[in-house]
Amino acid sequence: MSWLEAIHRKLSWSHSRALLFEECPRKYYWRYYAPYGGNAPWETANREMLYLLGRLTNVPMLVGSIVHTLARDALRSARGGHRWAEGTFAASAQALLKKALNASRKAAGHPPRGEGKDTAVLAAHHYGQPFGPQELQAAMERAAFYGRKLYEHPAFQRALENPAGLLAIDSYGRLTLLDVPVLAVPDLVQQEQDGSLRVIDWKTGNGVAGRLDTYARQLAGYALYARQQWGVEADQITCEIAVLQDGSTVSVPVTEETLRQTEGRIAASILEMQSRLRDLEQNQAHREDFPMRPGSNATRGITPIACQWCDYKSACYPQ
Questions:
Q1: What is the 3-state secondary structure (H, E, C) of the chain?
Q2: Cα 17 to the center of its chain, rounded Å
Q3: Measured between alpha carbons, how far is 95 from 97 in angstroms, rounded to an integer?
Q4: Model confidence over 6-28: pLDDT tens digits?
Q5: Minimum mean pLDDT range among 179-183, 203-207, 272-276
Q6: Whole-angstrom Cα distance, residue 122 to residue 128?
Q7: Longest pairwise C-alpha distance within the chain
Q8: Radius of gyration (Cα) for the chain, nearest Å?
Q9: Distance between CA atoms of 125 and 108, rounded to whole angstroms?
Q10: pTM of the shown model
């Protein structure tokens, strides 16, 4: 019996979880319910494979995760009185990427259990796609580039100048709505000299402009958490998207009305998630209550373009 059969998880809400639910209810089910026996007791698919598919990643996503780890470790070190040298950032990003790629290579193709079961696996490793010296060099250059860009960004430099004001650095927080934990993990919450708060989110890649609305919703959720956690008013909270690629900063307005709407939006999302459950108290779900995205038809083999690159395509359209 798989170790996943005994796992049962309670319902929680997060920005990323809500986005997945909006994108495709079936994908949401594959990710958060189907792998776990306690949450999807009726599921007959291979739980270990579904769990593995949920860990797949690509180079841009992996580098983004590494840069967030770099920012967290560097700022926590600065808060403790030790500031990293500028040249450390590119080298550290490359070292972390090399370690992650080695772990991915070892984990690919093996059942996810025991030590290393939560290792992110590069999709290229999982599917046996080419990832040779040329791809490795490009990945290492990307890691070094964003390591440098992190250090150079004005928001990061501002954080280094006031380490005593770093209230939260990539730390898990939560508030409660409708008796459901609402998770918030802001990249950085910094207190200014006047007592106001600055909430910062690091973004890698070049698609920030096209996703500003999504990122604004994410930061509004963080602002809602910050108001509760540190007891400040909306006009004392500034939210910023730190775009590492070009060094720019995008401000996200925060008002009491913004926070009121955010709370309502999260509550509505929670209710929609709960409405799909077979057993609300046990947080148990059945596959058929989470339909595939519009235009999909597994029986007839109709695959929307958006599904072609989905990590769960093999679960929805088994060969």
A1: CCHHHHCCCCCCECHHHHHHHHHCHHHHHHHHCCCCCCCCCCCCCCHHHHHHHCCEECHHHHHHHHHHHHHHHHHHHHHCCCCCCCCHHHHHHHHHHHHHHHHHHHHCCCCCCCCCCCCCEEHHHHCCCCCCHHHHHHHHHHHHHHHHHHHHCHHHHHHHHCHHHEEEECCCEEEEECCEEEEECCCEEEECCCCCEEEEEEECCCCCHHHHHHHHHHHHHHHHHHHHHHCCCHHHEEEEEEECCCCEEEEECCCHHHHHHHHHHHHHHHHHHHHCCCECCCCECCHHHCCCCCCCECCCCECCHHHCCCCCHHHHCCC
A2: 9
A3: 5
A4: 999 999 999 999 999 999 999 99
A5: 203-207
A6: 10
A7: 62
A8: 21
A9: 6
A10: 0.92
Neighbours of 123 (CB within 10 A): 18
pLDDT > 70 fraction of the chain, expressed in percent and rounded: 94
Residues 252-294: tens digit of each pLDDT: 999 999 999 999 999 999 999 999 999 999 999 999 999 988 7
Contact 2, 44 (CB under 8 A): no
CA 289 vs. chain centroid, Å, equals 25
Domains parsed from the chain with CATH numbers: 3-157 (no CATH), 164-254 (3.90.320.10)
Q: What gap in Å lies between CA 231 and CA 8, rounded to an integer?
A: 34
Handedness of CA 218, 224, 229, 231 (dihedral sign): positive
As a whole number of angstroms, the distance between CA 75 and CA 161 comes to: 11
At position 32, the amino acid (one-letter code) is Y
pLDDT at 302 over 70: no
Q: State residue 296's pLDDT score.
A: 57
Amino acid at 187: D
Q: What does the pLDDT read at residue 194? A: 94
What is the spatial distance between Cα 19 and Cα 28, in angstroms, rounded to a whole number? 9
37's CB contacts (< 8 A; 6+ apart) are 2, 4, 5, 6, 7, 8, 43, 47
> Residue 102 corresponds to which tokens in the numbers above?
């080695």
